[in-house]
């Protein structure tokens, strides 16, 4: 299900150089709110993960991680990660044998125990240092009948939310698992999951129905969820929220000056840096390389000709090819017009 795995990126097992890590810390993270150690591969397999955690600690940048939770241990490193993280997401696409058929080689009971361990380690931290924990599920034909059970599982195990996404088919083999072949059944399970989440007052991010309609929580569930989450907000989260509000205000100012709204969070707020130092606007397939941190200062790359052209293309409704049919470009993406992306 991972485009990076299919392209071979996660099989190379290369490691980022200390020189590049230092440049990221000095040139990027002094301006950043968040840093994600996860685009391709399992972060707990990274030999230098402690250095990346130190980098975030030194710059007071919030960590965001996605993990398959197969390598979690009760260690000081995991505690440091949780203290520095704003969110840690656990990939889990089913329960029991269904889970093991999708994530080949993993043991469901072991992963379940590791998630319970993460919840327990988090509970030891002061309330203000606890990150959000989420379980992420890719919805497909093989596991859709477990969606309601996954709501129960995530709620009972003690994470904060369940995030569900439709499978994106990168090849014909994966397309056979796509919910586009069973639209009515997909909608039925999504509706049931929303109802169960509302009953349990549990936050669930569900994909849209096959028509594109989003199912929002019922009003009563919204109120209870908001009341519960307000009680969990500490000074650190308030500071992050304030920074987020400040960023939104800057975005509005930028949009006014530029004459329009970009519609792409990547192009306005972040970049993707490869192990070799290449900088791309995002991790999506087909995007250009816009510079290299080992050769060019980041400020020149950020304000350089390629990123400028990409932003102007979106503003002028003349997007570059890589943006024209990108599912992340929600302002202009039209699924029926996509020729290379299947849902």
What does this structure look like?
- The strands form 2 sheets. Strands 1-2-3-4-5-6 form a 6-stranded parallel sheet. Strands 7-8-9 form a 3-stranded antiparallel sheet, with no helix packed on it.
- It starts with a helix and ends in a 19-residue tail after the last helix.
- The relative contact order is 0.09.
- The model is unreliable at 333-343 (pLDDT under 50).
- The chain has helices spanning 3-7, 18-28, 49-59, 76-84, 96-102, 108-124, 147-157, 172-175, 183-200, 219-231, 235-258, 265-269, 298-302, 305-315, 321-324, and strands at residues 34-36, 62-67, 85-91, 132-139, 161-166, 203-205, 272-273, 278-280, 291-292.
- With 343 residues, it is an alpha/beta fold.
- Helix 3 runs parallel beside helix 4 (76-84).
- Helices cover 45% and strands 12% of the residues.
- The protein contains 15 helices and 9 strands.
- Strand 4 (132-139), helix 7 and strand 5 (161-166) form a beta-alpha-beta unit.
Write a compact overview of the structure shown:
This protein is α/β, with parallel strands linked by helices. The protein has helices at residues 3-7, 18-28, 49-59, 76-84, 96-102, 108-124, 147-157, 172-175, 183-200, 219-231, 235-258, 265-269, 298-302, 305-315, 321-324; strands spanning 34-36, 62-67, 85-91, 132-139, 161-166, 203-205, 272-273, 278-280, 291-292.
């Amino acid at each position: 299900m991972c485009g990076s795995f299919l392209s071979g990126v996660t099989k190379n097992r290369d490691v980022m150089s200390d020189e590049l890590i230092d440049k990221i810390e000095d040139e990027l993270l002094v301006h950043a709110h968040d840093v994600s150690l996860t685009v391709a591969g399992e972060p707990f397999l990274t030999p230098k993960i402690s250095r990346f955690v130190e980098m975030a600690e030194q710059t007071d940048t919030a960590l965001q991680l996605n993990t398959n939770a197969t390598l979690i241990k009760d260690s000081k490193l995991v505690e440091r990660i949780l203290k520095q993280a704003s969110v840690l997401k656990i990939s889990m696409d089913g329960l029991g044998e269904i889970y093991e058929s999708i994530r080949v080689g993993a043991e469901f009971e072991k992963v379940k125990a590791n998630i319970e361990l993460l919840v327990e380690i988090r509970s030891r931290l002061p309330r203000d240092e606890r990150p959000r924990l989420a379980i992420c599920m890719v919805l497909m034909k093989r596991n859709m009948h477990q969606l309601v059970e996954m709501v129960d599982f995530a709620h009972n195990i003690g994470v904060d939310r369940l995030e569900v996404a439709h499978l994106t088919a990168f090849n014909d083999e994966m397309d056979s698992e796509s919910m586009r072949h069973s639209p009515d059944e997909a909608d039925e399970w999504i509706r049931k999951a929303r109802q169960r989440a509302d009953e349990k007052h549990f936050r669930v991010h569900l994909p849209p129905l096959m028509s594109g309609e989003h199912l929002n929580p019922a009003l009563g569930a919204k109120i209870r969820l908001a009341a519960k989450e307000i009680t969990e907000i500490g000074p650190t989260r308030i500071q992050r929220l304030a920074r987020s509000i400040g960023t939104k205000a800057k975005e509005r100012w930028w949009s006014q000056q530029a004459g329009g709204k970009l519609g792409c969070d990547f192009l306005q707020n972040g970049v993707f840096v490869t192990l070799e130092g290449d900088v791309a606007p995002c991790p999506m397939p087909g995007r250009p390389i816009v510079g290299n941190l080992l050769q060019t200062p980041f400020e020149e790359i950020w304000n350089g000709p390629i990123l400028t052209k990409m932003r102007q293309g979106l503003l002028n409704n003349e997007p570059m090819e890589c943006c024209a049919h990108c599912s992340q470009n929600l302002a202009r993406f039209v699924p029926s017009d996509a020729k290379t992306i299947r849902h």
